[in-house]
Amino acid sequence: MKSFFQRYATPFITGLFLVSLISGIALFFHFGPGSFHGMHEWLSMVLILPFALHLWKNWRSFINYFRRAPMAIALAISLAAALYYFLPSAPSEGRRAGGPPQFAFTSVILRNSLTEVAPLLQTPTEDLIAGLKANGFSAATPELPLTEIASRSGKSEGELVQSLLPR
């Protein structure tokens, strides 16, 4: 069994890395079917096992990398590159939500009050308040932003949107 893992760890890393590479490029350029997202996420998770086996197989060689500067430099640069995505990219005034445009659009809508959103849903504000309260949004008032209603009610914005949609 050990020889099987040692023999197949590197080939599986190669195959799964290529899948991750191709699906990642497709996602970056918003090209191809929606199944690329699930493929990229799940098969990147599967990649962890052959990577761990590869490290186990090549542990002594791997440890030798830490004795020289290139590994420390590469890890520091990689960490800095990853941390960049946690920094605010712009002042809060002009910032928009990341991800697909429909998520950014939803984020903008959710910053408005029920009074402002009711005409978009072609529903009276009072009916929206009653529906939200029936679904456990106790903080529903006409003037609060939708995000605040969800937060104060202890529910997610997704649950709030689902409650507002006509059935």
Descriptive report:
- The chain crosses the membrane at residues 12-33, 39-56, 68-87.
- Helix 1 runs antiparallel to helix 2 and helix 1 packs across helix 3 (48-57).
- Helix content is 68%, strand content 0%.
- The radius of gyration is 24 Å and the shape is elongated.
- It folds into 2 domains: 2-70; 101-164, no CATH class.
- The chain contains 10 helices and no strands.
- The protein is mainly α and 167 residues long.
- The termini are far apart.
Instruction: Tell me the number of helical segments per DSSP (H or I, 4 or more residues long).
Output: 10
Indicate the low-confidence ranges by residue numbers. Answer: 90-96
Report the β-strand fraction as a percent range.
Answer: under 5%
Main sheet characteristics: none
- The geometry reads as elongated
Total beta strands: 0
Provide the residue-averaged pLDDT.
Answer: 87
Give the H and E element order: HHHHHHHHHH
Instruction: State the domain count.
Output: 2
End-to-end Cα distance, whole Å, is 55 Å
Quaternary status: single chain
Radius of gyration: 24 Å
Structural category: mainly alpha
Q: Helicity level, as a percent range?
A: 55-70%
Keywords: Membrane, Transmembrane, Transmembrane helix
Transmembrane segments: 12-33, 39-56, 68-87
Organism: Rhizobium altiplani
Protein name: DUF4405 domain-containing protein
